[in-house]
Design the sequence.
């Protein structure tokens, strides 16, 4: 984890303290307070619990003590300011600033041969499942966790494929971890696997939406389903695509979880396609 995984300065300070204590078990809040020049450990203790904001005169000092580089220091300053924001406008402005300051994720445009990764949406779903808090590297657990039926043999084959293609690996603690950030395919790859992926994804989503055991009306807080038809001028298409990619990047940057922090895996589909022809047949 890094500072960019945090939007609450108190949570980051608690994590930073934990890292210091891992390196030196004798390191304490009292010792850290003395090093920062506080007369007692009470102010720092309150900052760690979010009950007190960081005084502006201490922000640079704390950034230096935390060995943050310049971009990280700017981000640290921004989350510190966010903690003191009172108005909705200020909170929106500072949240947008975090988006600007946070390094953009690597949207790797990878053409894999063979196209095994793209054929089945289960590949991406299992990769994201490794981020769940309670994740277990167990076929039956994965099968039970999914909202749609998948044979154990298919889950086993998918996992073997992900390790073979290098999308998953086992870390020093024995946990499965994602090795690539966000994989997408280059535009218009002419291969049946891409068509199969989108067809299978639509089928999967449709199954979940109309699952009688978990009807949409009972899970309104967990789902957002919208669909619109728009009439557009051709010259606006680049702008539409720019807005779409900005939306995708914001979702990735501002909501993605680190390993072991996620509660559930969600499928985010986005289609923008022409449904009328330039000339009638």
Sequence:
């Amino acid at each position: 984890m890094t500072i960019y995984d945090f939007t609450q300065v108190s949570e980051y300070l608690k994590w930073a303290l934990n890292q210091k204590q891992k390196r030196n078990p004798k390191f304490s809040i009292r010792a850290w307070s003395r090093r920062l020049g506080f007369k007692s450990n009470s102010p720092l203790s309150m900052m760690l619990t979010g009950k007190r904001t960081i005084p502006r005169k201490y922000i640079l000092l704390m950034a230096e003590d935390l060995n943050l580089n310049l971009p990280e220091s700017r981000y640290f300053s921004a989350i510190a300011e966010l903690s003191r924001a009172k108005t909705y406008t200020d909170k929106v402005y500072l949240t947008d600033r975090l988006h600007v300051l946070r390094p953009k994720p690597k949207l790797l445009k990878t053409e894999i041969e063979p196209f095994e990764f793209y054929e089945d949406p289960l590949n991406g779903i299992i990769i994201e499942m490794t981020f769940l808090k309670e994740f277990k590297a167990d076929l039956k657990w994965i099968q039970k966790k999914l909202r749609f039926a998948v044979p154990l043999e298919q889950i086993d084959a998918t996992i073997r494929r992900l390790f073979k293609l290098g999308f998953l690996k086992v870390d020093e603690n024995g946990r499965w971890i994602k090795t690539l950030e966000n994989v997408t395919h280059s535009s218009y790859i002419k291969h049946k696997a891409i068509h199969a992926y989108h067809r299978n994804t639509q089928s999967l989503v449709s199954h979940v939406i109309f699952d009688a055991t978990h009807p949409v009306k009972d899970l309104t807080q967990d789902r957002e389903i919208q669909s619109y038809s728009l009439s557009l001028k051709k010259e606006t298409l680049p702008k539409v695509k720019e807005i779409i990619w900005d939306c995708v990047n914001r979702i990735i940057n501002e909501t993605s979880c680190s390993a072991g922090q996620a509660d559930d895996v969600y499928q985010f589909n986005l289609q923008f396609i022409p449904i009328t022809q330039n000339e009638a047949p």
Confidence is low (pLDDT under 50) at residues 107-114, 184-191. Residues 237-255 form the longest helix (19 residues). The first strand starts at residue 107 and ends at 109.
